[in-house]
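Hello K.,

You asked for the raw outputs rather than the summary table, so here they are, unedited. I folded two proteins back to back in the same session to keep the settings identical. This is the first:
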Amino acid sequence: MNLKPYMDFASDLAYRAGRITLGYFNVGVRPDYKADDTPVTAADRAAEVFIRDELEKAYPSHTILGEEFGESVGQANNFRWIIDPIDGTKSFMRGIPLYGVLIGLEIEGVVRVGAAYFPGTDEMLCAADGEGAWWNGRRAHVSTESSTERAWVCFTNVRNMERHGRGQAWERINKAVYAMRGWGDAYGYLAVATGRAEAMLDPVMAIWDCGPFPVILKEAGGYFGSWDGRDGHLHGEALACNSALLPEMLDLIKGE
């Protein structure tokens, strides 16, 4: 299957949705709060409506799963688009530019196409199986750093580590690595895929928050999956890492 047309379509769609979000960015937009106390803004809703409309026009038989409006099942349900119109809404609503528009295409349960656009920094990251990973038109590669003593590790929310039973693993990693930086949400995964950080950890992860990243990290030469080494986006948690450091990171997590 030629996946490049899907990659090009997803990239263009993420870019155009991202430009919509900029119309709401850093102008004092007020959020609403969902039942789980996470925020949602008019920008989230407008971008997701736009993405859904374009997907329905281009691929009317495909299934669509989005954070704000749920799942619409198409006849070709082995093709499922996974979308997050704004990953990093908390950053977005405070005028912090480290948020992204995420689009992934899952084919028979495996993410094979992905695009992540970061409007605030104008960075496009995309990939498809066999097509490589691309960062603003050039190849994206994870770093080659193999020592935790020089590793940079990203995270989203320190409090979640303890809440989700990862406190001790977090402490081991924190003591072992060179630098910890809270470049969280999707931006941390961008940093790993482009070699600017060695690892990114989230102890809790919804599938729309990571839709494009399994294929992006794989094509960039790295790993995306669970904290115990299982590839993919369906584990409820996420670890991204370069290949050189992955065995040591998994050992730190396990306490070995």
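The second followed immediately with the same parameters:
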Amino acid sequence: MKTVIVFWSGTGNTEALAQSVAKGVQAAGGSADVFKVGEITPEQAAAYDKIALGCPAMGAEELEEAEFAPFYDALEPLLKGKTVGLFGSYDWGDGEWMRLWEKRAADAGLNVAATLTVQSAEPGVGESVAFGKKLA
């Protein structure tokens, strides 16, 4: 099965997580393509068997508004019944944006197989490899 990993990263932490998620998918015998938001359309992403989405907490613990949120808004209706994983990093707060995102995805009918939330001071490479294996 083929997995797509789509992410937005402001400081590089979420990008590092995305690369490690791909390593985890590959270690579990799957294949993964990694794209920054803007390099793939929602329709192209929805064509994959499994989807991992990465976005750090922004503002008042929310998804990045200019690029990632519009992408996700367009993608979410295309993913009903699909297996998805959500990941991201934060530097302050308590990770509420991930809990809200996970609930939103579940309420939309997505099969959230895994989530990963790490503090940006420590990119969580080992955790993200395990996340990728779980998703695969």
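The helical segments are 13-27, 42-46, 68-75, 96-107, 125-135.

Happy to rerun anything if the numbers look odd on your end.

Regards,
P.
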